[in-house]
Amino acid sequence: MTDAGLIPPNESERLKAVRRYDILDTPPDGAFDRIAALAARIFEVPVATVTIVDEDRIWFKATHGVEVTEIGRDPGLCASAILVDGPMAIEDATLDPTAFNNPLVRGEFGLRFYAAAPIVTSDGFQLGTVNVIDRRPRSVSQAELATLADLAAIVVDELELRLSAIREVRLERRRREEVQKSKGQVEEVARTLQQTLLPPRMPQVPGMELSAFYHAAPLQEVGGDFYDVFPLGGRRWAISIGDVSGKGVNAAALTSLARYALRGAAIQTSDPSLVMAALNETIAADQSGHDVPRYCTAVFCVIELTETGSAQVRLANGGHPPAVVCRADGSIERLTDSGPMLGWLPESRYPTSETLLGPGDGLLFYTDGITDARRYGQRFGEGRLAAALADRPHNNAKSLVRWVRNLMNEFDPPGYDDVAVISISVEPRTVTERQLTAVWSAGD
Fold first, then answer.
1. CB–CB of 86/117 below 8 Å?
2. Which of 68, 62, 50, 41 is nearest to 130 (CA)?
3. Where are the domains of the chain?
4. Is the dihedral of CA 386, 387, 388, 394 positive or negative?
5. Of 132, 47, 45, 139, which Cα lies nearest the Cα of 92?
6. Which fold has domain 4-159?
7. One digit per residue, pLDDT tens: the chain, 444 residues?
8. Which residues, in sequence order, are CB contacts of 406 under 8 Å at separation 6+?
9. Measured between alpha carbons, how far is 268 from 263 in angstroms, rounded to an integer?
10. CA 326 to CA 386: how far, in whole Å?
C-alpha cells in the first residue's frame, strides 16, 4: 500500500490522465530513449530515466545507464517528485529524511544525487518524472533544473504526438470495420482517407516556387502515397514524400502515422537522418497486431534559402526513388544515397545527402507510380524518366511537374497504384536581402 503522504489530492483524476495517454507497458520508443540519453549527457551523470507513476508502481518508459522496468511506488523518489511544483533536487540522499530509507539509497546501487522534473500535462496533471541520478553527492544550479524541466516538457510533447497518432490509427481502424459491415460505404470512406494523405493546400515559400501533382488510385484500392510541406522556422522548410506498403484503409492509417511521425520528429530536430531514424523506429514499433509486416519508403528534405538567393538542401532517403536535381544549365543529378526501407530494421541509419540549388535550379521528388507506369507492356522506368528530364523545356517547379505529368499521359499509370510528384525550384534571379526580409515579414 502506498503511503498516504505520497498520494496527490487529485490522485483519481491524475490516474485517469495516465490511462488517457495509453503509455503504460508499451515497448521501448526511440524518442523517449533519446530524451533519457540526452539528460544523462547534459548533466554528466551515469543514470537518467523517464518514469510514469502508476497506482501502485513506478514504471520506466525509458532508461539510460540502468536496466529496470518498474519498482514499487512506496517509498519512491519519483512518487515524491510529483507532489511538488517544478523540478527538485536531492544533493545527498543519505542526508535527506525523505530519501535515506529508499532501497536505491540504502542498497548496493548507492544512489546519492537525485534530481527530477515532473511531466505535467496541459491540463495540469503530473504523470511522472524525468530523472537524473548519480552515485556521488553533487550540487545542481537553477539553470540546470530549468533544463531538466524543458526535457520533461519535451516528454509531454512526445506523449501528445503519440496520442494523436494512436487516435488517428484507431479512427482508421474503426473506419475499416465500418467498411467491412457495409460494402456500399467503401467509396465514401476511401475518398475521405485519401483527402487526409495530402496537405489541403500548397504553402507559399518565399524566394522559391513549389508545385505538386497527385494521381489517386481507384477508390476501392486507396493507396499510401503522400507528400507534405511545412515550415521549420526561419528560412527553413521541410518537404517529405513517401509510399507505404499495402492498400486500403490499413495503408491510409499507416500513411497518417508516417506523416504525423515525420512532423513530430521534425519538432525535435531538423537533421534529416535523425528524422528518418525516428520514423523508422515509430513504424517498427507499430508492427504488433498486424497480419503482414508494414513498411514505408520516404524522403525527408530540409531546404534553407540563403541570403544570396540560393538554397541549401539536406535530405535523407529510406528506400525511396532518388530525388533529381535539375540544374539551370540543363544537366540533372540523382541523389542516390539511401538507407533501408522504414519499419524493417530497428536502429537503421540513414545517410544525409547535401547539395546547393542555385538560382534557376529545381528539385524533383516522385513515387514509384511514375516509374512503374506501362505502355504496350513497356515499363516507364528510371532511365526513361532521366532522359525525359534531360530534355525538359523549362526548369521551374510548375514546369517540371507539368512536364512529368504530360509524360505520364503517354503511359498508363498502374491501375492499382497512386502517383505523387512534388518539385521546388529557386527563383532564377538572385533575391536581395531586402526583398527576402520584406517577403518573410509579410508572411508572418
1. yes
2. 50
3. 4-159, 197-443
4. positive
5. 139
6. Beta-Lactamase (3.30.450)
7. 445 456 778 889 999 999 999 999 999 888 899 999 999 999 999 999 999 998 888 899 999 999 889 888 766 676 676 777 889 899 998 888 878 777 788 888 889 999 999 999 999 999 999 999 999 999 999 999 999 999 999 999 999 988 888 888 888 888 777 766 655 555 555 556 556 666 767 888 888 999 998 877 655 555 678 899 999 988 999 999 999 887 666 777 788 888 889 998 998 899 999 999 999 999 988 776 666 678 899 999 999 999 888 999 999 999 999 999 999 998 999 999 999 999 988 889 999 999 999 999 999 999 988 777 766 667 777 777 887 788 887 788 999 998 888 877 776 554 446 788 999 999 886 444 445 544 554 444
8. none
9. 9
10. 10
- How far is Cα 186 from Cα 380, in angstroms, rounded to an integer? 31
C-alpha cell at 134: 548519480
Instruction: Report the largest interatomic distance among the alpha carbons of the chain, rounded to a whole angstrom.
Output: 83
User: Is 4-159's fold the same as 197-443's?
Assistant: no
DSSP lists the bridge partners of residue 412 as: 374
Q: Regarding beta strands 208-215 and 323-326, do their DSSP bridges make them parallel or antiparallel, or are they unpaired?
A: unpaired
φ, ψ (nearest 5 deg) of residue 164: -65, -40
Cα distance between residue 440 and residue 234, in whole Å: 9
Q: What is the length of the chain?
A: 444
Cut 0.85: pTM above it: no
Show Cβ contacts of residue 19 under 8 Å, excluding neighbours closer than 6 positions: none
CA dist 22 and 20 (Å) reads: 5
The DSSP H or E segment spanning 264 is: helix 248-268
Task: Provide the 3-class DSSP secondary structure of residue 16.
Answer: helix
d(CA 151, CA 301): 26
CA–CA separation, 429 vs 37, rounded Å? 46
The single residue listed with the C-alpha cell 544523462 is: 40
Return the DSSP state at 170: H
389 touches 364 (CB < 8 A): yes
Q: Which CATH number, 2.30.36.70, 3.90.226.10, 3.60.40.10, 3.30.70.120, labels domain 197-443? A: 3.60.40.10
Amino acid at 190: A
